[in-house]
């Protein structure tokens, strides 16, 4: 076979990677806009632009403005970026791993498992050996959420996958069972929780970026970041897995390693996101799906673009959640559900043929 | 360079699918594996490619298949499965690129598509193709993966599991010619085949499997005889000679069946 040389500029028919790369640039710009809006909007009348102008003129900010911008809006924006990127990337990873566009940590019970981990840590954390509890410190809740997410992803994969093929029905049914079990155990834990713990639980369970602090960001990020950084390295493996496990092996992919890394990454990203912000649904399924429609399935681009779009969309949802009934706040989980659930139904509608199998 | 398997035994669950099979193939030749349904053809191919665990040894040149890393194997050989369902809407160019170590080497993907007669199909969605077109796209992916029949460090190998079962007769011949050319240019080809006549036309060596054991192994003229094939398939078969090079052809012998 003689390989024919092509210049990089020539558009090849069927080559969607140039479009995907252009999309990366557009989405990065979109994310910057979202971050600016998130910093600029809030219940306090502080104006980001006024503050920036003051800084440029060399004037000092008022204490209120400093607190609002640096201690309230900035950590909230960073947390929105981290959580949005984590949810979207874990959705894309899970869909690649399960070879199914309907797999999403929120839908198939991984979020519920992570939530159970977080609740267990909040309620029973004080029963941990003192040394361990002190060593983990603020990381108790996110670590427990990570472990809960990991156990449920592993269990789900074992139940739903046989000889390298994942059954959609098994995956969804196992997800329902996992969700129900996690809900029941969480219910029991709520009964034995103290009043202070109940307050923590309620606040956390609403699914919200409210209450973002730098220390909260600092406990979640070290768990999320390795997963987000690892994700692009799994791209070639996930592309190969789209053919099935055996063909992926024949392409030179160490299938078991890719699967293990993907499961760990999903658990870490979902677990830390759930621990930080409670259950925020639909980001993980809607974002990768829209991107697949726009520029194809190649995971080399899909994972990066998912992180950018997920972060930007979550920031906008958060802006809506805190401005629509200002000065009070709508939990962001409600906003993402209102926006995401209809899109999910539309995806289901288009995927009817797949589900009938 | 040769592919050689010794005393291959494969268990799937509690069932013993292969017992003590010896198998040889050399580069520069097309070696076909034939046998009735359930005789272990596909399992033999899976063992030879390292896809299933086995007892015994398989060596591809200097490479011990059981110990080799997936990427070391992938450099030496490509494997075409019987049928491939894709999880996501990839287009044809993207499917072929899946095989490439450098996915941006679109020229290689395009020449592989031209090789299987699918030039101009690049932007079509894989899911929307016919069964035969899908099979040829997968063949293009495998051809792109191995790049060339003979590399600087030795021959490349193609392992094909029923490569023509979904194809019409013209495309069957097209695909078998691709395999033939690959071997003629120094590569190795091992194919599981159902069609005995195509096998006789294109194979340099034939391995007849029956009930998990190798019944015969050799050139098509020596191996494809009334006795061997009838015994392997459990029905009366008569082998004739097509003119002029004397390629065997196989017909069912219904009269002998009726006489029993």
Automatic annotation (TrEMBL), chain A:
Protein's UniProt keywords contain Oxidoreductase: no
Main location class: membrane
Coiled-coil residues: none
Its membrane topology: Multi-pass membrane protein
Listed GO CC annotations: plasma membrane
InterPro entries per the UniProt record, alphabetical: ABC_BtuC-like, ABC_transptr_permease_BtuC
UniProt subcellular location: Cell membrane
Superkingdom: Bacteria
Gene3D superfamilies reported for this sequence: ABC transporter involved in vitamin B12 uptake, BtuC
Keyword set, alphabetical order: Cell membrane, Membrane, Transmembrane, Transmembrane helix, Transport
Keyword Transmembrane: yes
GO biological process, one term: siderophore-iron import into cell
GO molecular function, one term: transmembrane transporter activity
Transmembrane segments: 25-56, 76-94, 106-130, 136-157, 169-193, 261-290, 302-320, 332-349
Family the entry assigns: Belongs to the binding-protein-dependent transport system permease family. FecCD subfamily.
Protein name: Heme ABC transporter permease
Natural source organism: Pseudooceanicola nanhaiensis
From TrEMBL, chain B:
SMART domains the record matches: AAA
Gene3D superfamilies: P-loop containing nucleotide triphosphate hydrolases
UniProt entry keywords in alphabetical sequence: ATP-binding, Nucleotide-binding, Translocase, Transport
Domain of life of the source: Bacteria
Record SUPFAM superfamilies: P-loop containing nucleoside triphosphate hydrolases
Statement: the UniProt record of this protein carries the keyword Transcription: no
Residue ranges of the TM segments: none
ABC transporter domain boundaries: 3-236
GO molecular function terms attached to this record: ATP binding; ATP hydrolysis activity
Keyword Transport recorded: yes
UniProt cross-references to PANTHER family, sorted A to Z: HEMIN IMPORT ATP-BINDING PROTEIN HMUV
Record's function text: Part of the ABC transporter complex HmuTUV involved in hemin import. Responsible for energy coupling to the transport system.
Protein name from the UniProt record: Hemin import ATP-binding protein HmuV
């Amino acid at each position: 076979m003689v390989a024919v040389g092509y210049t990089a500029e020539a558009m090849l028919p069927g080559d969607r990677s140039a479009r995907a790369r252009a999309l990366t640039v557009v989405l990065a710009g979109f994310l910057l806009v979202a971050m600016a809006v998130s910093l600029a909007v809030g219940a306090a009348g502080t104006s980001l632009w006024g503050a920036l102008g003051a800084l440029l003129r060399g004037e000092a900010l008022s204490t209120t403005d400093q607190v609002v911008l640096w201690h309230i809006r900035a950590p909230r924006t960073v947390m929105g970026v981290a959580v949005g990127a984590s949810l979207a990337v874990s959705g894309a990873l899970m869909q690649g791993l399960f070879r199914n566009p309907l797999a999403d940590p929120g839908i198939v019970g991984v979020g519920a498992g992570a939530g159970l981990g977080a609740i267990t840590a909040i309620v029973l954390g004080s029963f941990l050996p003192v040394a361990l509890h002190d060593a983990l410190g603020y990381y108790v809740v996110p670590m427990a959420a990570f472990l809960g997410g990991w156990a449920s992803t592993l269990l789900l994969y074992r139940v739903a996958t046989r000889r390298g093929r994942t059954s959609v029905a098994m995956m969804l049914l196992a997800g329902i069972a996992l969700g129900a079990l996690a809900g029941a155990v969480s219910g029991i834990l709520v009964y034995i929780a103290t009043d202070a713990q109940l307050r923590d639980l309620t606040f956390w369970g609403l699914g919200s970026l409210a209450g973002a602090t730098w220390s909260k960001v600092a406990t979640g990020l070290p768990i999320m970041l390795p997963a987000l950084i690892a994700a692009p390295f799994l791209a070639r493996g996930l592309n190969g897995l789209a053919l099935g496990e055996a063909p992926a092996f024949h392409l030179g992919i160490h299938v078991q390693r890719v699967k293990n890394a993907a499961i760990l990454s999903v658990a870490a990203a979902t677990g830390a996101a759930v621990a930080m912000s409670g259950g925020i649904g639909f980001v993980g399924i809607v974002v990768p799906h829209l991107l697949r429609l726009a520029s194809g399935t190649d995971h080399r681009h899909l994972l990066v673009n998912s992180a950018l779009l997920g972060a930007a969309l979550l920031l906008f949802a958060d802006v809506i959640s805190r401005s629509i009934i200002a000065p009070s706040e709508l939990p962001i989980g409600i906003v993402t559900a209102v926006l995401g659930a209809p899109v999910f139904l539309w995806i289901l509608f288009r995927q009817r043929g797949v589900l009938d199998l | 360079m040769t592919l050689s398997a010794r005393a291959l035994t494969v268990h799937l669950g509690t069932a013993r699918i292969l017992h003590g099979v010896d198998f040889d193939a050399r580069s520069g030749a097309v070696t076909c594996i034939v046998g009735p349904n359930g005789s272990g053809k596909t399992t033999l191919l899976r063992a030879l490619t390292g896809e299933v665990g086995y007892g015994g040894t398989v060596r591809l040149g200097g490479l011990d298949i059981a110990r080799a890393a997936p990427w070391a194997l992938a450099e030496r050989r490509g494997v075409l499965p019987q049928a491939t369902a894709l999880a996501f809407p990839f287009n044809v160019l993207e499917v072929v690129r899946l095989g490439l170590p450098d996915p941006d080497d679109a020229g290689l993907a395009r020449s592989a598509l031209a090789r299987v007669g699918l030039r101009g199909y690049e932007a079509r969605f894989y899911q929307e193709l016919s069964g035969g077109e899908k099979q040829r796209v997968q063949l293009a992916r495998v051809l792109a993966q191995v790049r060339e029949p003979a590399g600087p460090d030795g021959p490349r190998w193609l392992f094909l599991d029923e490569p023509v079962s979904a194809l019409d007769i013209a495309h069957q011949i097209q695909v078998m010619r691709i395999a033939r050319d690959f071997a003629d240019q120094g590569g190795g080809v091992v194919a599981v085949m159902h069609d005995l006549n195509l096998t006789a036309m294109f194979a340099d060596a034939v391995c007849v499997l029956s009930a998990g054991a190798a019944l015969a192994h050799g050139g098509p003229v020596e191996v494809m005889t009334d006795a061997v094939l009838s015994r392997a398939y459990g029905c009366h078969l008569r082998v004739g000679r097509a003119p002029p090079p004397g390629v065997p052809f196989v017909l069912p012998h219904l009269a002998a069946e009726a006489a029993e």
